[in-house]
């Protein structure tokens, strides 16, 4: 088809040209002095993105590997962990915990909001003997478009007087939604390269607190590839204990530079602005977002219910075939009921308007019931016309 493909799933995201060009270099000697400089550059750069003064570990892996690394470095067989059911990816992390010999306790959720700090705090307050060793929360649930308030979760843990580690998945929020590893008292933050960091899949990360490092000294779950201890010595001079994903690290260095040039606060504001405009479009279409709690709206993606009796997957198929645009599918119990619009990473106003126009045209061709005008509502939100109209109405 003529024109470019619109990749509007919530990750992997579009890789900017600067990052592609940075990766398009000869592979260097990963034991040579030039690589040590690159390694130190990306490790320090990622500290700034996580907003931490502590250690960052980089793996050649997907985010799932970083999930496992967080658990095996800090826990022992049979340890209990408290998790919150925010959606499909929180459920997958629970399944991984079970398979490696940890005992997760899952607080049930409805997949329409983020984690409930009060429920977490109440359960920890009941745990008088401190059998729960960690609390695991997904910051931005990619299957639903709901963002949890990690600062409030930290407060709930503190108010319960509980020593559990706090582990947070930021795979679809890091470098897209405001996140503060040190300030919020997070012990292990998990992340991946293919979303807000604007890279292809293949790198994953742990940001690690001193408390988590202390826990790793007595943790007894088997670990080798994922071991923080194995990384510590080589990382001190920018190297890795095994072959790193060299060309992805070239790209990571460029991506971090791009984030700093824009400014992280500006990056976060841009994502929030695009999320707000996308939700204005959904409301104008007469449809409903999966996230039902305005306090938990995501800046990274918007998940949308299709009308009852209609197929989200057929709509996505029609949209792809006619407009060369990929939208995210519904996962697990949301399968065929939901489509997901990714608006994260290297993304601007025109890309959002192209995406929302494609959604509107796709709904027309697929025969989904909707009201016209969603793209215009988003345009009004982006240009400020919405605020001007509201001010005029208030003056009247």
Describe the protein.
The model is unreliable at 390-396 (pLDDT under 50). The longest helix is centred in the last third of the chain and has 22 residues, at 264-285. This protein has a seven-stranded mixed beta sheet, sandwiched between helices. Strands 1-13-14-12-11 form a five-stranded mixed beta sheet, with helices on one face. A two-stranded antiparallel ribbon has the order 6-7. It has 14 helices and 14 strands. It has helices at 17-23, 33-50, 63-72, 88-99, 117-126, 150-159, 210-216, 228-235, 246-262, 264-285, 312-323, 349-366, 374-383, 385-395, and strands at 6-8, 55-60, 80-84, 103-107, 132-138, 140-141, 146-147, 165-169, 188-192, 203-208, 288-289, 301-305, 325-329, 338-342. The radius of gyration is 22 Å and the shape is globular.
Looking at the structure, what is the overall shape?
A: globular
Overall pLDDT: 96
SSE run = EHHEHEHEHEEEHEEEHHHHEEHEEHHH
Helical fraction equals 40-55%
What structural class results from the helix and strand content?
A: alpha/beta
Could you tell me how far the N terminus lies from the C terminus, measured between alpha carbons in angstroms?
50 Å
Query: From the alpha-carbon coordinates, what is the Rg to the nearest angstrom?
Result: 22 Å
